[in-house]
Amino acid sequence: MPNLPRRILIVASMALAFAGCSKAGGGGASTDDMSLGDPKSKVQVVEYASASCSHCARWNNDVFPEFKKKYIDTNKVHYTLREFLTPPQNVAAAGFLTARCAGKDKYFPALDAIYHSQEEMFQTGDYRGVLLRIAQSMGMTEKTFNACVSDEKALKALNDRVQKIVKSGKISATPTFEINGKIVKEGEATMAELDAAVAAASK
């Protein structure tokens, strides 16, 4: 659960490094919130997470599948992921851009693949290679991947979303879980903790 810096400023060169020699722009990344489940659900769960956060990856890999099956797939919960950037910020930014460029219907599968490959990225240092492999598994080509992670407009939009969260002062760690506008957990939430929080919000 890394502490978050008070101010995060992302520059285009951080993600551009992942594109190799390509300077192509226009990766087509969406700027909308990414969510799952019924938007009209009584219980609205927001997770603030980073693609480079090991605690976020562990929660995604160990807890999220059960949470999704029990609450999201049954439309008892509407779940939204709010993207944040923790060190190495260029990896987190490139990861989120890649997931968004995969398309709305593939965003969460792409992010899941990134979380499951996070340890490999950190151990080998081959961040670009791993992300490219994931992008290609989602139907992207190397050319579209390069365009995606060198899309300065999309990177600025990501930075703007992050800065909005920073200015709100809502979170100091990732992951952080918010239910119906109230922070219920900073750090990895257990299924038991989420069960209790969802039950309370459902009343």
Walkthrough of the structure:
Helix 2 (54-62) crosses helix 5, helix 4 runs antiparallel to helix 5 (107-116) and helix 4 runs parallel beside helix 7. The chain has a five-stranded mixed beta sheet with strand order 1-3-2-4-5, with helices on both faces. It is of the alpha+beta class. The protein is 50% helix and 14% strand. The two termini are 30 Å apart. The model is unreliable at 1-16 and 20-29 (pLDDT under 50). It has one domain: 3-Layer(aba) Sandwich (Glutaredoxin), CATH 3.40.30.10.
Number of helical segments with 4 or more residues? 10
CATH architecture: 3-Layer(aba) Sandwich
Q: pLDDT average, as an integer? A: 87
The total count of strands amounts to 5
Shape: globular
Structural class: alpha+beta
The percent range for strand residues is: 5-15%
Q: Tell me about the largest β-sheet.
A: 5 strands, mixed
Side by side, the strands of the main sheet go 1-3-2-4-5
Q: What is the count of distinct domains?
A: 1
What percentage of residues falls in helices of 4 or more residues? 40-55%
Low-confidence region ranges: 1-16, 20-29
CATH topology: Glutaredoxin
Tell me the name of the CATH homologous superfamily. Glutaredoxin
Integer-rounded radius of gyration: 16 Å
Order of secondary-structure elements: HEEHHEHHHHHHEEH
